[in-house]
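COURSE: Structural Biology Practicum
ASSIGNMENT: Worksheet 4, Part C
STUDENT ID: 0417
INSTRUCTIONS: Below are two proteins. For each, the amino acid sequence is given first, followed by its structure token string. Answer the questions at the end about the second protein only.

PROTEIN I
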Amino acid sequence: MIHVYHEHAVDLAESIQRVDPERPVVAVTTRDELAARIGELEIVFAPMPPREGWGAAHRLRLIQLLGAGVDQLLPSPDLPARVEVAGVRGLFAADVAEHALAMMLVHARRIPELLALQRSRTFEGQPRPTLAGQTLAILGLGEVGRHLARVAVALGMTVHGHARTARPCEGVVVTSDPIAAVRGARYVVVALPLTAATRHLVDRRLLAALDPEAFVINVARGEIVDEPALVEALRTGRLAGAALDVFATEPLPSESPLWDVPGLVITPHVAGLGEHYVDRCIEVLLDNARRLDAGTPRRCLVDREAGY
């Protein structure tokens, strides 16, 4: 049996049963209802499951998330050790990498400036820089980082990568030191999972190591970037610009100072929101449910100790 935990759980449950009408699915819309059903849970399908309250989940075998990040759930103090956690790692890597590339092109080709000229009915052109020949630093060489690296190398960029463990990537100079990775980079893309080790990794010290022409893009998790430090760097002209798709608080409050920061492009956590997003997540869920039934290895499992 699958329990769907979400404010729109009824719609999600109906979508699951259209694909697999034989599998029992229960919609759960509130935290209280989830707690009341804790003893009957076997498979939970949820974008934002609670971090606590799993101690009595004696039948629970799998929590299937609707994204690659698991920081909303892990570490979980009372989640039984036997329970597997799965995401959709790699499923939308191309979407996220394309978003990062789009932000690089928006900056390099000065698209906002061109749109302003259009609005003023001004027809004048100036030379535009290219990405070819520029240096890109990618913090995190998982599925997204590696996909972006391949595209950047094909475009003629020099690519530096940061990874905690050695992860050879063709055409990429890899280092375990994030500051070494970003030195001299015109573009920096954050593509790391959020863990205790990466929280505020992009802080004042790292930002100070960047060239003033650098452009920072975050398509990972908001808390990896020290937002006040980034705001300060942008307001003082210490950086050329930035693009954030993720934030420490989401939805981004209307009173957030980020909305008015010069040189900052804000997008509403859409980098990985590819076409048929939910349907593709449901495919992974049902495949993993079948694998549980058959006793075969599950897809996209998370290392609960590592947090990704």
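PROTEIN II
(use this one for the questions)
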Amino acid sequence: MSVHEQIADDLPLYALGALQGEERLALERHLDECPACRRELESLRGDMALLALSTAGPKPPARARRRLMEAAAREHRQAKGVVSHPWWLPLPWLAAAALALAVVVLSTQNSGLRRQIASLERDAASQQVDLQHAREIVSTLTASDAMRVTLVAAKAPPQPQGKAIYVRDRSSLIFLASNMPAAPSDKAYELWLIPMTGAPIPAGMFKPDAHGSATIINPPLPANVEAKAFAITVEPEAGSTTPTMPIVMLGAGE
């Protein structure tokens, strides 16, 4: 038997994955050097694929089935006393069944991947909606033409407020009052600077106008006094040297 005849007999086994050991290695070495046998191997594999598809698809050409079976029939290297039926003849149908099973598995995996992709697309769409919502909130908060309104309890009178701006190094003080109630008759409000140590220091008298507003600008104060807080009391119009209780308003440094 020539080398090519031996190889022709072994090619169906190799195509089916049934050729092992030294015979497989020898055939692979031959295939590296012989383009004709490589083409024959590819033809056999193509025929086997057509036969495998016949389990779940259209009937393959009769030529493919006949060609593969003729190549398989050339195998005659059975041991003496073994039945003439080659043991590997059912292998094409096993390969067909395996291919059919692989098709089912791949189809299932493909469906799972499609579901995962659809889920990711839904998540991405939801995130885009959330991002757009956040952008709208930031745009509203930072808009230069936005109208800003403070709401208060209906029919509740505005709360009295006083703001003192004091520069210790210059002994400079500006005080602004708003929403202040009118002082009692023959009385006035007196502002006090409460130092870190020592007695409160008078810082000016005031009576609110009809709108409850009043201002004290740079009253005479001792030099370089560190202020702990400012307070307001109700005193005689001429003023007092010490606060008269109770203190009606009090505020510490911000």
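ANSWER KEY EXCERPT:
Q1: Residues 154 and 203 are 35 Å apart (CA to CA).
Q2: The domain at 161-252 is CATH 2.60.40.10 (Immunoglobulin-like).
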